Amino acid sequence: MSILRLLVAESEPADDRAERRDSVGKSSGETYEDALRRIAPGATIDRVQPIERRETSVAIADYDAVFLTGSPLHLYHDTAENRRVVDFMRAVFETGVPAFGSCAGLQIGTVAAGGTVRAMPLRPEAAFARRITPTEAGAAHPMLAGRSRAFDAISIHSDEVATLPDGATLLARNDATIVQAAEIRFGRGILWGVQYHPELTLAEAAGALSRQGDDLVEAGLVPDLATLADHVGLVEALAERPDDPSLAWRLGLDRQVTDPDLRQLEIANFVAVLVRPHAAGRGRG
Q: Tell me: the pLDDT tens digits for 85-101?
């Protein structure tokens, strides 16, 4: 089996990376590294921050896959940061290196290929996306192989894909977000993307809730920060005791979220179906 070369592209601004490290001890890119080390032991993993500069120091084509992290970016705003990260994604598409994106990663791939992103019209999705349902195409797609007919996933976002680009296939949705998973083909490239976060741990879900507490109160998801703190406490307890059925029941969760093999299933499927064959085709398999 080949030693994979993987590239993680962080789209968090520097201040947000620092805040996340203070909260849960890792940036989004470092979280992705941990997930990839579990799924692809022995892989060489590098990280870049294309949001901060036009990335010219990395030869994307030298990698077997690119992973795009979550981020608080709002891609419907015309900013230098957004332009840089979208240009980076277009460069990934041009190389034909397969890509996987979580949350903002899906949105970046969407915009790079000609689709649109918007603020969610009703409310954000916080901590867990509920009853994600594969479409007919999604039920047959290898990214969602092993998923239930309806499943929950760690998720926290206030933006969503509004329109998928030409060449994209909708793979899953739920009542809160019309595009929960999609495949995007553009130029020579392909991106498998999800609006949720298969890379996150339950402890990181709790940290995200705490960091965004004021926003969640303002959105009307909880009446006050004290109520939120009680909910965060349950998520933190489940992170420590993921096999405790009473905690999972109180949060309305099952093994699709509490079992890391199931929680990270989309990334593992991506590595097995697209990344390893890509590496083998380059003579490193």
A: 999 999 999 999 999 99
